[in-house]
Write a structure and sequence with these properties.
The complex is a heterodimer of chains A (478) and B (247).
Chain A: E1 14-15, E2 18-26, E3 30-36, E4 44-49, H1 57-69, E5 81-84, E6 93-96, H2 114-132, E7 136-137, E8 146-148, E9 154-156, E10 163-164, H3 187-190, H4 198-213, H5 224-228, H6 238-241, H7 247-256, H8 268-276, H9 285-288, H10 295-305, H11 316-321, E11 325-330, H12 337-353, E12 358-366, H13 374-396, E13 406-413, H14 416-426, E14 431-435, H15 441-446, H16 449-456, E15 460-464, H17 468-475
Parallel strand pairs in A: 11-12, 11-14, 12-13, 14-15
Antiparallel strand pairs in A: 1-2, 2-3, 3-4, 4-6, 5-6, 7-10, 8-9
Chain B: E1 2-6, H1 13-25, E2 28-33, H2 44-56, E3 60-61, H3 65-72, H4 80-91, H5 95-102, E4 107-110, E5 113-116, H6 132-140, E6 146-149, E7 156-160, E8 166-169, E9 176-178, E10 184-188, E11 202-208, E12 213-219, H7 224-232
Parallel strand pairs in B: 1-2, 2-3, 5-6, 6-10
Antiparallel strand pairs in B: 1-11, 4-5, 7-8, 7-10, 9-12, 11-12
The chains are: A alpha/beta (478), B alpha/beta (247).
Chain lengths: 478, 247
């Protein structure tokens, strides 16, 4: 095995001006070194593939894939790429060192408290959404490939099995065996389908299952036959394994672990949304499940899979673009009926064309900036809050959205525009629909909520106006 | 340095001009023509004038089957429409133009790159690359790491890794694709003058030879104008020139 191994690298050696300081990790496919280069701000790490005589072709191509994909990615959810080494001399990748810990370090702590599981899950989902938005499907989500920055931001590492929508998939044609990691690999990856971003949600579901229960949903199979089990056999419900797992968390986890990608969350952003709003998770039969499916159901699943054809047109881009999170901001205190109707019409138009879209209905309950009326908020605020929530549900009802497609949020803040923007940012909202009342001299001077949202939002904003005639007829005494 | 790869211009001056303007804005300093400068279109003279200038300025060009037919006469495999245009084209070229075409090589190598119109295994027989299998055959037939071909009018990118199994990829216009050094690549930029995939925009590809990143491009142009010229010249309006009319 080790006949062709090169002499070990030692600290102090230099590659292309990078000085090796300390070996941080020795994996089966690569070693990770802490490196430094005087002209570059650190800390940096260098990933060097481990070549052997009995080279595993997947590890070689995997390194090639990572060299191709990592430079195309940017943002806080991936390590910043710095340099790539020439294959004819010494292949390597130099990237930023992520300061925080790997999720792998927490494996021994499972089961974790449900709140922490949700927080970890939401941060990984946010990272996945960022990567999917850049045309990349990770395809090897597991604890050792997740890190956290010191501020808690989730970071995905190791893009060796990944696929980029717009670059050749070097792994697809090369291997006739499923590519992934046994416990975490999605059913469609086992069937060699590599173009569905929801595969990453399945793997994240396995991670969440493990941290919620302390056990793996599908064990650690090593044979193809063992891997294929998950195509028919559903896992033991998390609550049956660990009684502290709440129904909403079981709902989320089992939805991620659905065999058919169409039954999972549409996007990582929608999953992150549920993990951040446990009270808004639409509970279905999944939440209450106590046992695995019976043999008849399993047999039915086996039969259903025969003749299934993969959708070759699918891609991260396509899946994300048809499943946005749309937020409608309603002013329930001063908005007119005409405007509220116009907003509903606008929301309907967006949702009709995009069956995977989710709608978040927001309203802002204005609180005092200095908080001196806190006692009043306690006495009365709760009932006002409830009233607003009911009004939001009432507003959304005519849209006829199915379970899980609509959520309702009463935000409490002194500054409505700030609250809406903040909600949109933390929840990966793609499209904000907001009303604007007819012009008034006062508003022209003070600026309106909608104009501030338009100015500062990072996504698309639609500003809706009611027709002046409708507004006028409503204002006139009848 | 950036190099523009232009294939199957087919005497379409408007398409060629649009691609060259785009390539110029994108910083291209050289042009490589992958054969079939003429045939089908009604502007063989102006197209050759432009190409000859660019080749004289350090560009490259290889011979295509239509170019060869203009010099030697049509080949038996050529479709009737193409044959009709060959004679018409020849009558409109100067002796210098014909000499330029006659002097084009079947293939040319430049460092790690091979330029050839049809394929590397037998460039003069004009067999098409229609599958990863054909692409693999061509990539194995050359010592060059990257091959640039024309002949097929629709853009495609093939690659061949260490395991010998070729892969195919449909490029997305405007996305730079790094042609990694550990495998062989065969790029078909697609036709400048006669697209055949239902999208009338002209095709070409741009290589950044410092990073070996190849970007396929689709360039919209006034495709009505060359069509009008073909009709005015009394030439057959090939079904290919007007994809929407072919159905």
């Amino acid at each position: 095995m080790s006949a062709g191994r090169r002499p070990p690298r030692l600290p102090g050696a230099a590659i292309d001006g990078y000085v090796l300081e300390e070996k941080l990790h020795q994996g089966s496919m690569a070693e990770i070194w802490l490196v430094r280069r005087p002209d570059l701000a650190g800390p940096l790490v260098m990933k060097i593939p481990s070549f052997r005589d009995d080279d595993d072709p997947a590890s070689l191509v995997g390194f090639e894939v990572e060299q191709m994909i990592l430079p195309t990615l940017s943002g806080v959810h991936v390590p910043r790429f710095l340099a790539s080494g020439d294959w004819s001399v010494q292949p390597y990748i130099v990237m930023e060192r992520i300061g925080g810990p790997s999720l792998r370090a927490r494996l021994a702590d499972a089961p974790l408290d449900p709140g922490e599981v949700a927080s970890i899950g939401a941060r990984i989902a946010a990272a996945l959404h960022a990567v999917h938005g850049q045309h990349v499907i990770h395809l090897d989500v597991k604890p050792s490939n997740v890190m956290f920055r010191p501020d808690g931001t989730g970071v995905l590492v190791d893009f060796g099995l990944s696929r980029h929508d717009r670059l050749p998939d070097l792994l697809a044609e090369q291997f006739r065996l499923p590519i992934g990691t046994g416990p975490y690999i999605s059913p469609e990856q086992i069937a060699q389908i590599r173009n569905d971003p929801r595969s990453d949600l399945f793997s994240l579901g396995v991670v969440l299952y493990y941290f919620a229960t302390g056990e793996r949903p599908f064990g650690n199979p090593s044979s193809i036959r063992g891997l294929r089990q998950r195509l028919y056999r559903d896992p033991v419900p998390p609550r049956a394994r660990h009684r502290h797992c709440p129904p909403w968390l079981q709902e989320v986890i089992l939805r991620c672990l659905e065999v058919s990608p169409a039954d999972r969350y549409e996007t990582a952003a929608q999953l992150a949304f549920d993990l951040r709003h446990p009270d808004q998770v639409a509970l279905t039969e999944r939440a209450e499940r106590r046992t695995r499916s019976g043999p008849l159901t399993v047999l039915r699943r086996r039969l259903r899979r025969i003749g299934e054809e993969p959708d070759l047109r699918r891609s991260a881009e396509e899946q994300i673009s048809r499943s946005p999170i749309v937020a409608v901001a309603l002013d329930l205190e001063q908005g007119s009926e005409a405007l509220s109707e116009a907003l509903r019409m606008a929301a309907r138009r967006v949702l009709q064309t995009l069956p995977g879209a989710r709608l978040a209905c927001l309203t802002v309950l204005k609180t005092s900036r200095i908080g001196m009326d806190s006692s009043m908020v306690d006495a009365q605020g709760r009932s006002i809050r409830m009233q607003r929530l009911v009004e939001l549900q009432h507003w959304a009802r005519p849209l006829g959205l199915g379970v899980g497609r609509v959520t309702h949020h009463v935000l409490e803040a002194p500054d409505p525009a700030g609250a809406i923007l903040d909600f949109a940012r933390t929840n990966h909202v793609d499209h904000v629909v907001i009303g604007s009342r007819g012009s008034s001299t006062l508003r022209r001077y003070l600026g309106s909520v909608s104009s501030q949202v338009v100015a500062e939002a990072t996504g698309t904003v639609t500003v809706v106006k009611a027709s002046p005639e409708r507004e006028a007829s409503e204002a006139a005494p009848s | 340095m950036r190099i523009a790869f232009l294939a199957d211009v087919h005497a379409n001056l408007e398409a060629l001009t649009a691609c060259l303007e785009h390539a110029d804005r994108a910083g291209a300093s050289r042009c490589v023509f992958l054969g079939d400068l003429v045939g089908y279109g009604a502007d063989p003279g102006p197209v050759l004038a432009l190409v000859r200038t660019l080749v004289a300025r350090g560009g490259k060009a290889v011979l295509g089957n239509h170019d060869q037919a203009v010099v030697l006469g049509p080949t038996p495999q050529m479709n009737p429409e193409a044959r009709e245009v060959i004679g018409w084209t020849r009558a409109r070229l100067s002796a210098d133009d014909l000499a330029f075409l006659a002097g084009l090589p079947l293939s040319a190598e430049e460092g790690p790159r091979l330029y050839v119109h049809a394929n590397a295994w037998d460039p003069g027989r004009w067999e098409y690359i229609t599958s990863p299998f054909d692409a693999g055959r061509s990539m194995r037939a050359t010592r060059c790491r990257t091959t640039y071909c024309g002949h097929m009018h629709t853009p495609a990118l093939y690659h061949l890794g260490g395991d010998g199994r070729p892969g195919a990829f449909v490029p997305t216009p405007g996305t730079p694709i790094p042609l990694g050094p550990q495998r062989r690549w065969l790029a078909i930029p697609g036709s400048v003058g006669q697209s055949r995939d239902g999208n009338p925009a002209a095709c070409y590809a741009l290589l950044d030879d410092a990073t070996d990143a190849l970007t396929f491009q689709r360039i919209p142009y006034d495709d009505e104008a060359p069509r009008r010229k073909i009709l005015e010249a009394g030439l057959p309006l090939s079904f290919n020139v007007r994809p929407e009319a072919s159905r």
